[in-house]
Write a structure and sequence with these properties.
Layout: H1 3-22, H2 24-31, E1 37-42, H3 56-64, E2 106-114, E3 117-125, H4 134-137, E4 144-146, E5 152-154, H5 164-168, E6 175-177, H6 183-186, E7 195-197, H7 203-207, H8 213-217, E8 223-227, H9 228-242, E9 245-247, E10 257-261, H10 265-274, H11 292-324
Parallel strand pairs: 1-10
Antiparallel strand pairs: 1-8, 2-3, 4-5, 6-7, 9-10
Length: about 325
């Protein structure tokens, strides 16, 4: 790669990152003919596969994404300045009762007081794939992207593991694994802390005309996948027939995931908090980007993200050049 090519690629990458942060990229995507997809999760049908050792949706997700799970080397697992700790789940890959870098969906079980009775509610949890995701728009490395089809996807080859995405997510969904990622090649002692991982709604399968593995595996039809507006309408139809409630339509400014329950989500969230279960389901939770602090951070991070994106593009170009050579 010569200097002229380096500058050309850097400029293109920087402009691309800036567009993503200002929202123009999303507007352009929305103008296209790509169908946006979503999911409908009916909590009245989910029983957590209680007759099995592991819910089938969780099992299917782990099997489908096994080759994407991080494989850190022991010698790379160490703190980076100024942190004194690092997050390592490599010895706890068997954990399935929470989100981890090795477990991108799980099912909560919680007892909820409703109508004078205690009701057991099972709740599949993973990324909500928000309409205006602060995780993607505030990533200083432009490692996350809201795809035109709806999923919010992390690029593990670009992520530095700074965990800004987890900080601004109302549900703190992304999970970090140390000892892997680009930071090891750039500044292993001073930048980043690994790579963030979460559900990508089986983006690869979607682009090939398939459906997410978790949806396909559900034996009770509690999970449904399809065009987003159809899923929204199905959620409203089901909630209407139950006299029930919807979660995910307005939270964080809107998401691609619509939960339906016969029990108010305020009661479910209260029960989750009382049981100290994470993540909770705060009704009507706002979007960090709509706050003055969030807007200020978006403006300040835009040029930084552009520069980082330019550096990553140049790095990739150099790597490609070496391979080509």
């Amino acid at each position: 790669m010569n200097r002229r090519e380096f500058l050309r690629r850097s400029l293109a990458a920087g402009v691309g990152a800036s567009l993503a942060l200002t929202g123009l990229q999303r507007v352009r995507a929305a103008e296209g003919a790509v169908t946006q997809f979503g999911t409908f999760i009916d909590l009245t049908r989910c029983d957590g596969c209680k007759d099995r050792s592991l819910p089938l949706c969780v099992d299917a997700c782990r099997e489908a994404n096994w080759d994407k799970f991080p494989q850190p080397r022991k010698e790379d697992l160490k703190p980076y300045w100024p942190q004194k700790n690092y997050e390592d789940w490599s010895e706890k890959q068997h954990v399935t009762d929470r989100l981890t870098p090795y477990n991108w969906t799980f099912v909560q079980e919680v007892e909820v007081e409703h109508g004078g009775q205690r009701v057991t509610v099972y709740i599949p949890r993973r990324c909500m794939h928000c309409d205006n995701p602060p995780c993607a728009n505030l990533c200083p490395f432009s490692a996350q992207e809201k795809k035109p089809q709806g999923p919010v996807v992390i690029d593990p080859h670009v992520c530095f593991g700074g965990a800004k995405c987890r900080e601004v997510c109302p549900w703190h969904i992304p999970q970090r694994q140390a000892g892997v990622g680009l930071y090891l090649k750039v500044a292993p002692k001073f930048a980043g802390g690994g790579v963030m991982y979460k559900c990508d709604l089986c983006y690869g399968r979607i682009t090939r005309g398939g459906i997410p593995d978790c949806v396909e595996a559900c034996p009770r039809g509690a999970l449904a996948f399809g065009p987003k507006e159809e899923m929204r309408q199905e959620a409203h139809r089901r909630a209407g027939s139950l006299g029930g409630y919807i979660y995910g339509e307005k939270e964080n400014g809107g998401t691609s995931t619509f939960y339906v329950s016969a029990i108010p989500f305020e009661s479910i969230n209260k029960a989750l908090l009382a049981a100290k279960q994470q993540p909770p389901m705060p009704v009507g939770v706002g979007n960090f980007l709509d706050t003055p602090n969030g807007l200020a951070q978006a403006v300040l991070l835009a040029p930084v993200a552009g520069l980082v994106a330019a550096g990553v593009a140049a790095y990739r170009g150099l790597q490609g050049g070496k391979k080509d050579g």
